[in-house]
Amino acid sequence: MRIKGECSRSGLRARSANITACKGFTTLAAPRAGSGHPRMKTALITGITGQDGSHLAEFLLEKGYRVVGMARRASVDHNERIAHLLDRIEVRQGDLLDQGSLVTILEDVAPDELYNLGAMSFVPTSWAQPVLTGEFTGIGVTRILEAVRAVKPDVRFYQASSSEMFGKVQESPQSEKTPFWPRSPYGVAKVYGHWITVNYRESYGIHASSGILFNHEGPRRGLEFVTRKISSAAARIKLGLQEKVSLGNLDARRDWGYAGDYVRAMWLMLQQDEPGDYVIATGEAHTVRDFCQIAFEHVGLNFEDHVVLDPTLLRPAEVDTLLGDATRARNVLGWQPEVSFGDLARLMVDADVALQRRLVGRGGDA
Ligand code: NAP
Ligand code: GDD
Description:
This protein has eleven helices and 16 strands. The strands form five sheets. It has a seven-stranded parallel sheet with strand order 6-5-4-7-8-9-14, with helices on both faces.
């Protein structure tokens, strides 16, 4: 519950009075031991403004957590995905490029669980900005782990690793034992982030887990990722707002799941007595063409009439195919996905049709 109030850096002092103060509002703190209530856990999420951050925040609120998100300052509002949660979460300014901000946030928030989801996550941009990608997505993990080591070494830490690390796959399906062969500066940075997480676990005994998540999507996915680009185009074409959509490699195969299912796996990893690494995937691969076919068919269209191939969208080095083996997650975490590939494509199209109708209704350029 949030109450408007003075902004203060004295979060720790304020908490002792059972009130935390930060960023223009105060939050009633967790009931303390002895108060007759179980202690409310605190989770800190970097990347809370992203697709996964918003799903994870919702999930943890449902579980009764105090949820604090770290977000970078921007000149325009980028809270679209968490707008509906802003009266139930705290948002703190910080940046994975800024060590001091990470230390301060950890000191003030004192989380029980820390989910490091912040990253430059769009693969093509990693060729355009390889050094920055390395800083955010790779070294950023070391920065936050160093802050953990200095301030809160008993926190349970989750690192958002990626199936992009498998890249040019060395075996199929890919499991926790499959060697990495990343094919983009993003994939290379994620391999670094993965191994530094393992290293801090082994060097300092930190409860640090790495989730090797395969592609996961949903209506909150950024518009530049292929599934959302297709679902949005199918909706707009259906409503007469657009005629064509340009795509690159239609033969690329991915193991696509639903983001809401995947954040549950993140949480499960941090509930284990022992930290570890887990592949999270559906075990089914489909092509970009398959996604087009289902998405357009759902609104009564033939994708071949609307998809234009654009060679400039091909990547310098492609990840042709990914297929995950999530046996370990199933056996140890009891995790399995609930949304099928076809349902995922259809629910994304439905959400985009509804969104475009709302935008048209408001008189905006849908
Ligand atoms: P996303 O929608 O692109 O969100 C990325 C988040 O990181 C945003 O909140 C972004 O903030 C934040 N961020 C970027 N640079 C930052 C910095 N320097 N300091 C602090 N925060 C920063 O990505 P997502 O799909 O939710 O993915 C979450 C994480 O899982 C990422 O690490 C991604 O690489 C990884 N992952 C994703 C998938 C997938 O299929 N979705 C699969 C495997 C792994 P702004 O709003 O300010 O940009
Ligand atoms: N984005 C995009 N746009 N991709 C296209 C297009 C297009 O117009 N046409 C074809 N593709 C192909 C890409 O070449 C790629 O093989 C596939 O569609 C998926 O592309 P993205 O949706 O951009 O996702 P990604 O697989 O590169 O990366 C995502 O998944 C990773 C996990 O494997 C991101 O979420 C990463 O952050 C994540 O780590």
